[in-house]
Amino acid sequence: KKISDVLEKSAPKAGVPADLQNLLSQHFGENHSVIELEELKLSDTCFLPANDLTHSFSSYLKEICPKWAKLRKNHKEKKSVVMLVICSSALRSLELIKSMTAFKGDCKVLKLFAKHIKIKEQINMLEKGVFHIGVGTPGRVKALVEQDGLCLNSTKYMILDWNWRDQKLRRMMDIPEIKKETIDLLEMCIIKLCREGSVKLGLF
Questions:
Q1: Which of 71, 88, 144, 157 is a plausible cystine mate for 149, CB 3.0–4.6 Å?
Q2: Given its phi and psi angles, is residue 164 left (phi above 0), alpha (psi -120 to 50 degrees) or beta?
Q3: Is the pTM of this model over 0.70?
Q4: Does residue 3 fall inside a structural domain?
Q5: In a domain, 124, yes or no
Q6: Can you give the residue range of the structural domain that contains 159?
Q7: Total structural domains in the chain?
Q8: What digits encode the pLDDT tens for the residues 143-166?
Q9: In a domain, 82, yes or no
Q10: Percent of the chain having pLDDT more than 90?
Q11: Residue 77 pLDDT > 90, yes or no?
């Protein structure tokens, strides 16, 4: 059965923290020890309220981040963003950037995907300017962190574009490559930051 056949017949169901927890357990279950798995567990306190499918992107961000104006004003660090939004493609990143207009005000948003943008350009921009929100694909974000172009010390929110479906009705975690890159990014640094309490995860 193709995934799109299954999805076509099933009503959309909003993602919840347990979905991500289960995904991580399945992914790491085979080759991690019990102790390692414990270190990759995220408690419910690591999560922001999930989108119940009634929200626009701006209204969702307003709900989970009511003090945005203050956070935005206080953010002065280069090479970093306060909010990181992870989605499945460059095209979807552009859609999300457009649809957060009501929320973002005059803050600076940086596109963090590979299509038509060289990684060196993104590293230069991050070094020179102050950006508040980064929107992009997990592969490019991971590469930027690995190359020390993006530092996550100031990041407070990481939003996964969890419920959206592409033309084939696949969500980001239904696409093997995107799923793997997202999990790699989470394992590399995000889970640790969530467990320390500095980053909160949101499922949009």
A1: 144
A2: beta
A3: yes
A4: no
A5: yes
A6: 14-203
A7: 1
A8: 999 999 999 999 999 999 999 999
A9: yes
A10: 80
A11: yes
